[in-house]
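Query structure, 137 tokens:
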């Protein structure tokens, strides 16, 4: 009975909303005020504004979100910016669509990748930029 209880507790502790691919994310400065995010295992290349803080795992996410639960699963990457007053997610095979986000999907290597951008990012030029993918081909 103790072993079963231990395994049950362990499964809850180890559950993460992050995809197994998120550990392969790499970020680097690619232009003056921009960051390039790549994930070779997904053949993904994404360009973001440089003022974002990023999370690739549950621990970093909790530090940025102060313990808030993620509205999504299969997170490839999470970005948050105080300057733009918003956040966004790169998601793998997303099926959740909370109303307070805008979405853009693309298919890479037969996998659906979604950008979910919070509606609090209001300027059209910012939303247009963040909702676009740059793909490795």
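Result returned for the query:
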């Amino acid at each position: 009975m103790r072993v079963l209880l231990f395994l049950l507790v362990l499964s809850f502790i180890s559950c993460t909303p992050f995809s197994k691919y998120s550990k392969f994310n790499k970020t680097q400065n690619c232009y003056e005020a921009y960051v390039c995010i790549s994930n070779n295992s997904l053949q993904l290349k994404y360009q973001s504004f440089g003022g974002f803080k990023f999370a690739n795992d549950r621990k970093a996410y909790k530090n940025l979100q102060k313990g808030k639960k993620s509205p999504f699963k299969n997170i490839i990457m999470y970005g948050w910016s105080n300057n733009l007053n918003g956040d966004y997610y790169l998601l793998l095979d997303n099926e959740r669509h909370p109303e307070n986000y805008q979405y853009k999907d693309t298919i890479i290597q037969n996998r659906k990748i979604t950008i979910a951008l919070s509606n609090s990012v209001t300027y059209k030029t910012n939303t247009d930029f963040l909702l676009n993918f740059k793909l490795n081909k």
